[in-house]
Amino acid sequence: MSMPQPTAAPPPPPGPPQRRSGGAPVGAIVLIVAGALLALTSLAVTAGGGLLTWAHATQRDASGFYMTPTERFETTTYAITSDALDLGRAGDDTPFDLGDLATLRLRVEGTGGQPAFVGIASQNDVDEYLASVSYAQIKNLRTNPFSVDYRYQDGTERPTPPERSDIWVASASGPGQQSLEWAPTSGQWVAVVMNADGSSGVSVDASAGAKVPWLAGLGIGLLVGGLLGVALGGILLVVGVVLLARHQHIDLGGPVPVDGQPVRLEGRLEEPLNRWLWLVKWLLLIPHFVVLVALWIAFSVVTFVAFFAILFTGRYPRSLFEFNVGVLRWTWRVTYYGYSALGTDRYPPFTLGHAPDYPATLEVAYPERLSRGLVLVKWWLLAIPQYMVLAVIWGGAWAASGSAGGFAASVGLVGLLVLFAAVALLFTGRYPRGLFDFVVGLNRWGFRVVAYVSLMRDEYPPFRLDQGATEPAAPAAPPPPASAPAGGTGADA
Q1: How far apart are the first and last CA of the chain?
Q2: What pLDDT digit, counting tens, does each position of 38-65 carry?
Q3: In total, how many domains does the chain have?
Q4: Is residue 317 part of a domain?
Q5: Which end of the chain has fewer CB atoms surrounding its CB within 10 Å, N or C?
């Protein structure tokens, strides 16, 4: 009688393909850094070109001059002079004629009907003409609000009426508004305003301007060149991001947030914390700040590219998605160590990938499909209430207009709470637990909004500080007992 042969166990099902996880490819990093720098520089060039083009289209008068507002200049002396305008030594060889670059205009009108004179002459001639005459030289000129400071030159003589002098290279004189136009040449030049009869007590309303015929071409050239540079920088960034993801420096297919939440942010308080380290963390984090500037430029460009990908395909390219998640991860670790939480004294790692042993973690679940219509409105219109909340959570800054001008900034709630935590650390050596939970909750809210407006998820961010975990599903009811087979039991038979 032969014994049955044992059957071999079936082979285990193949696991997910393993991808090599070597260091970051140098070429990808170079592309990302170069693309970020090129995009940032090109944005500045584009802004400059746009400003020049806008000025050419809207700020010129009918004659093509850019004019300053008309302001009052007055003195009890015989003349008002400008500071010397140095255009190089006369007779120097120059590759161009200064008059081809710009034409200057001065407009003056005497107050009270007094005829006024305005002229331009060389500095030496003006010094000689006014050698024994009292006059006021403009030293400081402020525009908002307008004010002018003079330096006064003493003198005892009355000058010859300016119209009788032959020192002027350009001049205008008479009642009403007088306009002088002058094509600059090499030399040191001074503008002089006087009463037409040479009397003392000069009071005029004056403005100045210039016609720059090449400004429009420069603005358009900068605008086009800047846009091309932004496009090229964006291409370099996207290529670098894709290469980085393909080399597994960014862990594609990382853990999906649990409890059905699309964004999960955690912070684990690591005590004891150093009482004094928070005073210098800003200095220690400078290397991270430098890297994050480039990463966030790349983040913005990648989001712009993803916008069109979602609009036409309904999908967020996986490599680009994981890169942006990596930037959010890196940012959360840095801010958790720094002044958005002060939750740990462990220096954050330089990586876009997972760092499960670090006390600050962030995950965003990859969406298989995204709404092509929602992508058009969620980042600006639907997010307006969230932006208002973020202004309170993280603060903000804005320009202040008006007669005083200026700039204003607000410190967010997170900043104030972390300041209180820092003071508590300094004097007690402990971080109040309730305060810590509140700070992490505020950061959680903020990062959920960032993920939403960055087009990474379609779920509207909840107005809450916790993870918002869903209740576990109730266990399924047990199946009913199986019925007896037809025909009954043996006793019935």
Answers
A1: 41
A2: 888 898 999 999 999 998 899 999 999 9
A3: 2
A4: yes
A5: N
- Which range (70-79, 85-94, 227-236, 368-377) has the least confidence? 85-94
Residue 313 lies in a domain: yes
- Whole-angstrom Cα distance, residue 489 to residue 486? 9
Give the pTM.
0.63
Dump pLDDT digits (tens) for 274-299.
999 999 999 999 989 988 988 898 89
Rounded Cα–Cα distance for residues 72 and 156 (Å): 26
Does one domain contain both 199 and 262?
Answer: no
Short-list 73, 105, 313, CA closest to 202: 73
d(CA 286, CA 297): 17
Q: Output the 3-class SS for 71-131.
A: EEEEECCCEEECCCEECCCCCCCCCCCHHHHCEEEEEEEEHHHCCEEEEEEEHHHHHHHCC
**192 vs 121: CA distance, rounded Å:** 8
Measured CA to CA, the distance from residue 280 to residue 338 in angstroms comes to: 10
202 and 302, same domain (yes or no): no
For the record, the structure tokens of 3 come out as 């014994």
Q: Are strands 202-211 and 103-110 parallel, antiparallel or unpaired?
A: antiparallel
What is the extent of the structural domain holding 207? 66-213
Domain annotation covers residue 245: no
Same domain, 174 and 317: no
Output the pLDDT for position 32: 80
481 falls within a domain: no
- Domain end call among 213, 234, 267: 213
Residues 315 and 179 in one domain: no
Kind of pairing between the strands at 395-399 and 407-411: antiparallel
